[in-house]
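can u do me a favor
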């Protein structure tokens, strides 16, 4: 329960460390990664919350290679919602399109992901993956999967090394990936149609309240659209509202939606909303 801790000195709490950006020293790893990317016709990017600070470069990377991007609960908005390469959230509570891409891809590029259950179904979401390329600053997370080409260090610095090489990929090599992109596009459309059916569900009679009530997806959609219209930040608590929430939001950029990312922390949303009052740059927030 909440309790006032009188001797607490906020200045004595650990500060967020500031590390200088580091690059991959082994150029052989960069060459191996680019060779895998050029030779794969069924590749995906799995973008975790750690990729959000590098959204522009991840977008360039995806577009240069023509690669679908599967999001995590903490990375909605990394690509605009309607971007053709945005396959939406994949994982244990993922979308039709995100899980399709995960299940059928053969090369996986992980960027800034911890690979928890909500991100990759505890590792079993990639049924056909034969090779992995992992960009991360955390050495424990970067070595999560077997058969991994490890690119440790600052994600932005690593992408800055990869992009000049990948932007030179000939057009005929990109055409080899078009069939895969078409399959992912159809799955994205299927997901969009599925959501719309749920949003269009009419209110259902509730025996306890003795009146019609909106279904949870329809109600979340209304509030999420309102938040988008007024540029409000959305905070989702743990549970079914959260699982529906990060599937429903249609973010255009990172940091429009926050969840506790799989820690099952009940009370995250109201705590985050209250803590925003202490922010140097507060933003209107709505908790779900």
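np, heres the sequence
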């Amino acid at each position: 329960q909440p309790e006032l801790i009188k001797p607490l000195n906020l200045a004595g709490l650990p500060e967020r460390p500031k590390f200088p950006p580091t690059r991959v020293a082994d150029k052989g790893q960069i060459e191996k990664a680019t060779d895998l990317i050029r030779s794969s016709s069924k590749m995906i990017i799995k973008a975790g919350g750690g990729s959000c600070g590098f959204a522009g470069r991840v977008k360039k990377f995806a577009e240069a290679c023509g690669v679908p991007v599967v999001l995590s609960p903490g990375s909605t908005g990394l690509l605009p919602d309607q971007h053709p390469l945005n396959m939406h959230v994949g994982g244990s509570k993922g979308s039709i399109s995100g899980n399709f891409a995960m299940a059928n891809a053969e090369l996986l590029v992980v960027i800034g992901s911890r690979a928890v259950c909500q991100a990759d179904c505890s590792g079993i979401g990639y049924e056909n993956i034969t090779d992995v390329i992992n960009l991360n600053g955390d050495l424990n997370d970067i070595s999560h999967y077997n058969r991994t080409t490890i690119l440790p260090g600052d994600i932005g610095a690593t992408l800055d090394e990869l992009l000049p090489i990948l932007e030179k990929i000939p057009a005929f090599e990109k055409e080899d990936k078009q069939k895969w992109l078409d399959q992912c596009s159809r799955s994205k459309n299927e997901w969009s149609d599925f959501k719309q059916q749920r949003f269009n569900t009419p209110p259902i009679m509730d025996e306890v309240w003795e009146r019609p009530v909106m279904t949870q997806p329809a109600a979340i959609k209304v509030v999420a659209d309102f938040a988008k219209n007024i540029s409000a930040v959305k905070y989702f608590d743990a549970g079914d509202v959260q699982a529906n929430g990060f599937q429903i939001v249609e973010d255009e950029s990172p940091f429009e939606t926050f969840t506790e990312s799989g820690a099952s922390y009940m009370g995250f949303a109201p705590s985050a909303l209250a803590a925003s009052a202490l922010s140097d740059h507060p933003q209107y927030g709505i908790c779900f």
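The chain has a mean pLDDT of 91. hope that helps!!
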